[in-house]
Amino acid sequence: MRRFIITLACVTILVSATLLFLNAKTEKGLLKTLNETKQYPKEAENTSEEGKAEQTSHKGKQPNRVDSATNETKRKSSFLVCIDPGHQANANLEQEPIGPGAAETKNKVTYGTTGVTTGKPEYVLNLEAAVILKELLEKKGIQVVMTRTSHDVDISNRERAEMANQNKADLFIRIHADGAENQDTRGFSVLVPGQNNPYTAKIYEDSFQAGQMIVHRVSEKNYTLLGNGLFPREDLSGFNWSRVPVILLELGFMTNPEEDLLLSNEKYLSDLLLQVAAGVADYASH
């Protein structure tokens, strides 16, 4: 009996030791499995140099559309327009060269035309239009400087162009209204430097492109155009002294009774200049 009890105790100890050993082995394996499971998500993050480069590359690609819009905004905010409201209260008929080194001369600045129905002087309309255009362009983030903000000035056409040059304007916009002997003549137009004019050879292409974009915008809204709306001129000192892209807006004919009234209608004038501003913004963004 005593031998049986001793044998049973030995067997019990042996079984217990075996179970403890197996349990320890199982726990070690389980812990290893758990540790490997915890590490798995880190491996899935692709932390290799190639993976990091790929992630950086994707981050750079995502904001392309935003970057494009931001770049366009930056272009507009750094884009400077010089607006010249044509003429002034008193003409200056002294002569000045038509261009640098030219023997030919022209009046420094003339009085302009007068509304056949309204009796409004052109220089008044030109400033009204310039103020509206300035506000519209500034709302689009474009910077604007003016050659004049009142009528009581004495600034020649050469001096007006030199103001645009000194300010390093991206576009020089001269604002005028037209006149003709035939009162039936009407329509908006844009004058640009001549292609073969030696004074404006360097600025012809940009000037033409700006004028073309404005005429396109105006024609889209079915405003009456004079001819095709775009006319080259080589005899304007305000063009020939300019070293920056330059255009001249002819808003319409003040010698046409109906168009004269329209040009003094604030809504009509603002709507027309809204299209001009859109064309300028197109040019600034191109």
TrEMBL record:
UniProt cross-references to SUPFAM superfamilies, sorted A to Z: Zn-dependent exopeptidases
Biased amino acid composition, Basic and acidic residues: 40-57
Pfam hit, one: Amidase_3
Region: Disordered, residue numbers: 40-73
Keyword annotations: Hydrolase
InterPro entries per the UniProt record, alphabetical: MurNAc-LAA_cat, N-acetylmuramoyl_amidase_3
Domain MurNAc-LAA intervals: 161-281
Organism domain of life: Bacteria
Family annotation (PANTHER family): N-ACETYLMURAMOYL-L-ALANINE AMIDASE, N-ACETYLMURAMOYL-L-ALANINE AMIDASE AMIC
Protein name: N-acetylmuramoyl-L-alanine amidase
Organism the protein comes from: Siminovitchia sediminis
